[in-house]
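Tip: read the tokens left to right.
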């Protein structure tokens, strides 16, 4: 498994364990995230503000249904639980630079 995939795996494990500090630590300080609704988040503090309450509620978790990796890019087909009444299927494109996720695009 490539280093970018390992970084994304650490991020997923922290997400599933609701460990906000470990989750945020996998991202670059200036991370840019484009969400499914087209809105965006910028920086680690924005991650804390959005994911902190979700983690505190303890309901969210995700599993990988499929993965592609090329160079510094990892694209996961994720199934997210606890965000809606039914599981949410989404493609998530991660870019990993210098061992941290610096860009994320939720594609559907």
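Filled-in amino acids:
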């Amino acid at each position: 498994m490539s280093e970018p995939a390992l970084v994304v795996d650490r991020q997923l494990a922290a997400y599933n364990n609701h460990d906000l500090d470990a989750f945020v630590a996998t991202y670059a300080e200036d991370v840019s995230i484009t969400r499914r609704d087209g809105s965006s988040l910028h920086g680690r503090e924005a991650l804390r503000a959005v994911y902190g309450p979700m983690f505190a509620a303890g309901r969210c978790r995700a599993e990988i249904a499929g993965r592609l990796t090329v160079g510094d890019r990892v694209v996961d087909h994720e199934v997210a639980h606890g965000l809606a009444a039914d599981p949410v299927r989404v493609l998530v494109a991660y870019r990993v630079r210098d061992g941290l996720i610096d860009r994320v695009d939720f594609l559907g």
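The helical segments are 3-16, 20-25, 44-57. DSSP finds three helices and six strands in the chain.
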